[in-house]
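TA notes, week 10

Several of you asked for a full example with nothing omitted. So below is the full record: structure tokens for the whole chain, then the designed sequence directly under it. When grading your own attempts, check the secondary structure regions first.
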């Protein structure tokens, strides 16, 4: 198949999904073309562009951000030209901006099947009714001529009950990660990793990874950490990420004199060492798709403290051995969860998180399922459908 992948973010979770998907497709000998933006870029984006080009694919820098802007018209025209030049069998767009640009082509006469992965809808965690209504209307409009791939049950429920996207226009394929790569390590290795990252060896370490943004709600996390730091002398936080709110949060830590108990890491090319160096993972998001960071932490057998928010609720149904849920936007609820986690982790009771990750969240099965959806959208006479494809062992639900 010839596949055009379109994305706006070039860093963080949604991009890592795109990166792994493209590598899977290249490994299956598909021809992949890639439209991206370097506004939110990274060294991994540069490497991915090079791999696509080396495999014979065309690439396009859309030069757009995640906010609406006048340059989006130029980006759309460029994307339309790339489509006409490469004539792909399917188009797959990721996140809201790329999803809007790619799906708009369907309203300009493009016949190619267009897939869209939201990686969490904007309206899932927004209190502002006006902005949520606006973006929900856009999602309904664009969904009429595309196929949405939802990555969690909460996201799928939102698509069904709030956006009213018909079952024929969506499917559910749960996110996955490389369970071979994201794995636990022994104590000696963990201590060496802490040394390399500047984390105290003997501390009780809680880690979080994500953008400093409204969605991730870092203020709730840091207020909760501040309350617990006064009660747990060896408690330490590792916060990995960058974003609009980063300077405010760092200043908050300084103002409350706990900044020395936080290791700030703006960016990690490969976050595996982060997971292997901490004792637990915490995420205070207002909403998620199905967080790759949580899946990576799960695969590394880490205890989890998550907000009881859309996208995170999927994990509450997994019967995890070391799992705590807290009300979104509630520092008090997160403080209680951190206290419970700190008591439990010192007992060193074996967990079942990696076992569940291995059984249910393999990225190989996930990407095979997505590839299968591509084939279903093509005519039966298409060459891609002349070779039998093994059934993927992952949830695919067209309801």
């Amino acid at each position: 198949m010839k596949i055009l992948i379109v994305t706006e973010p070039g860093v963080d979770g949604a991009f890592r999904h795109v990166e792994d998907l493209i590598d899977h497709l290249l490994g299956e000998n598909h021809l992949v073309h890639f439209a991206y933006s370097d506004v939110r870029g990274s060294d991994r984006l540069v490497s991915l562009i090079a791999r696509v080009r080396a495999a014979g694919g065309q690439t396009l820098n859309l030069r757009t951000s995640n906010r609406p802007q006048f340059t989006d018209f130029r980006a759309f025209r460029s994307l339309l030209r790339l489509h006409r030049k490469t004539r792909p069998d399917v188009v797959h767009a990721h996140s809201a901006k790329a999803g809007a640009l790619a799906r708009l082509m369907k309203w300009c006469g493009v016949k190619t099947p267009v897939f869209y992965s939201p990686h969490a809808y904007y309206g899932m965690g927004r209190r502002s009714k006006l902005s949520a209504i606006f973006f929900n209307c856009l999602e309904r409009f664009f969904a009429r001529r595309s196929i949405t791939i939802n990555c969690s049950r909460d996201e799928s429920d939102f698509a069904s009950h709030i956006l009213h996207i018909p079952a024929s226009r969506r499917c559910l394929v749960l996110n996955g990660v490389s369970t071979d790569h994201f794995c636990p390590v022994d104590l000696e290795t963990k201590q060496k990793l802490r040394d390399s990252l500047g984390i105290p060896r003997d501390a009780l370490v809680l880690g979080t990874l994500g953008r400093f943004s409204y969605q991730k709600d870092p203020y709730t996390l840091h207020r909760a950490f501040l309350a617990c730091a006064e009660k747990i002398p060896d408690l330490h936080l590792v916060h990995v990420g960058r974003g609009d709110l980063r300077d405010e949060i760092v200043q908050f830590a300084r103002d409350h004199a706990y900044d020395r108990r936080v290791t700030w890491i703006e960016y990690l090319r490969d976050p595996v060492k982060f997971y292997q160096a901490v004792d637990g993972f915490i995420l205070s998001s207002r909403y998620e798709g199905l967080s790759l960071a949580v899946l990576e932490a799960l695969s590394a057998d880490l205890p989890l403290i998550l907000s009881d928010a859309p996208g995170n609720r999927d994990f509450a149904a997994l019967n995890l051995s070391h799992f705590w849920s807290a009300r979104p936007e509630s520092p008090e609820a997160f403080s209680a969860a951190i206290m419970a986690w700190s008591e439990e982790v010192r007992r060193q009771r074996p967990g079942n998180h990696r076992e569940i990750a291995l059984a249910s969240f393999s990225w190989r099965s996930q990407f095979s399922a997505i590839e299968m959806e591509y084939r279903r959208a093509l005519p039966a006479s298409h060459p891609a459908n002349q070779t039998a494809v093994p059934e993927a062992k992952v949830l695919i639900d067209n309801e």
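Confidence is low (pLDDT under 50) at residues 391-399. Use that as a sanity check on your answer.
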